[in-house]
Design a protein that fits this description.
Elements lengths: L5 H4 L3 H23 L6 H12 L4 E4 L6 H12 L3 E5 L6 H5 E7 L5 E7 L6 E5 L6 H13 L1 E4 L2 E4 L5 E6 L12 H4 L4 E4 L5 H10 L14 H13 L4 H13 L7 H6 E3 L3 H17 L7 H12 L4 E2 L1 H5 L4 H14 L1
Parallel strand pairs: 1-8, 1-9, 2-5, 5-8
Antiparallel strand pairs: 3-4, 6-7, 10-11
Helix pairs in contact: 3-12, 10-12, 10-13, 12-13, 13-15
Length: about 350
């Protein structure tokens, strides 16, 4: 996930601007169509789309019944992506995700092995309740998410392009779950908090989802167009001030780096992937909001989803009831002031 320097991003501003105009129209249609099926939850829809538009994966964390599964299915339709869903359970095996080799026998009696692809061979994979599966099974997704291929008995198999994992996790029910290891969490571009809907949205949900007909959505783009928008986002210019804000924020979140607050509250901080994630998603957010270049406000808005799963609090901070949101808010404060 290489991030571009500002110089590289300004190679042909006229061409980028022309492409961006068309992308703005496509994204506007995607937002409008998605809103037909998903009520409220604007921040969740935005952040999930930003993860996909940036070419990454997202982890949606929320209690059951908040339309996480419906959101993924809706986005698959609107973005024109092939999709599959895996319900993670304690007895799920890696082969249930990746696929397995089966033995065939031809008419002459000759036997040979044939690879039967698993549900991971899709464009948008929903990993439902990912923390319910064993670490061995969770790790089966690691190579797929990072390298975009899987290896079965020494043979690599390329995954479709684009390939995105949208995983869900229930933050309340911890019995019978296996917390995701830090290496796997870092593979997710964003961790998205799915909150309860507000009163207006919940009223609309009750009215529109309990009748005879539910609102259906149509495809607005296809996989090829999505990849073009993803490439455009990587070409968008990033100013020196935004680059400096990203570096300042990420480095200040690491203990032992001169920030007294981080030294007290943070056990370990974000690595370079956090900066890469901010570079990409800040560009995507600018385009999502109709702008051709990201601002420091985009970095501030995305600090939580990018950083909260790439840091850990000290034992003392947890004992004092300090939350990760409070820590990130404190680290972001200098950017607001600046």
């Amino acid at each position: 996930m290489g991030a571009m320097t500002p110089a590289e991003g300004t190679i042909d501003e006229a061409a980028v601007a022309a492409e961006a105009e068309q992308a703005l129209e496509d994204i506007a249609r995607i937002k409008t169509e998605t809103a037909k099926a998903i009520f409220g939850q604007e921040a969740v829809v935005e952040q999930t789309l930003l993860a996909v538009l940036s070419g990454g994966h997202a982890l949606l964390v929320g209690v059951p019944g908040l339309a996480k599964t419906k959101l993924v299915a809706t986005l698959a339709t609107v973005l024109g992506l092939a999709t599959s869903r895996i319900q993670f359970t304690p007895d799920l095996m890696p082969s249930d995700i990746l696929g397995s080799e089966v033995m065939d026998q031809d008419a002459a009696g000759k036997r040979s092995f044939r690879f039967v692809k698993g549900p991971v061979f899709t464009e948008l994979l929903m990993a439902d309740e990912i923390n319910r599966a064993s670490p061995r099974t969770q790790s089966a997704l690691l190579q797929a998410m990072q390298e975009y291929h899987v290896t079965i008995t020494g043979q690599p198999y390329a995954l479709p392009q684009p390939f995105h994992v949208l995983a869900t996790q229930n933050p309340l029910e911890q019995e019978g779950t296996y917390p995701l290891p830090e290496a796997q969490l870092d593979r997710f571009l964003l961790e998205i908090d799915v909150e309860y809907p507000d009163l207006v949205a919940e009223k609309r949900i009750l009215l529109e989802t309990t009748g005879v007909r539910e609102q259906s959505v149509q495809g607005m783009i296809d996989a090829k167009r999505l990849q073009q928008i993803q490439t455009l986002i990587r070409r968008m210019p990033v100013s020196e001030s935004v680059l400096e804000a990203i570096l300042k924020l990420v480095r200040s979140a690491r203990p032992g780096n001169g920030n007294e607050f981080a030294d007290q509250k943070v056990a370990w901080g974000p690595g370079p992937r956090a900066g890469q994630a901010l570079m990409l998603t800040a560009r995507a957010r600018a385009l999502y909001e109709g702008r051709f270049a990201p601002s420091v406000d985009d970095v501030i808005a995305l600090a939580g989803p990018v950083l909260q799963h790439r840091m850990a609090l000290t034992f003392a901070a947890r004992a004092d009831g300090v939350t990760m949101k409070e820590v990130i808010a404190k680290l972001v404060a200098p950017l607001r002031a600046g």
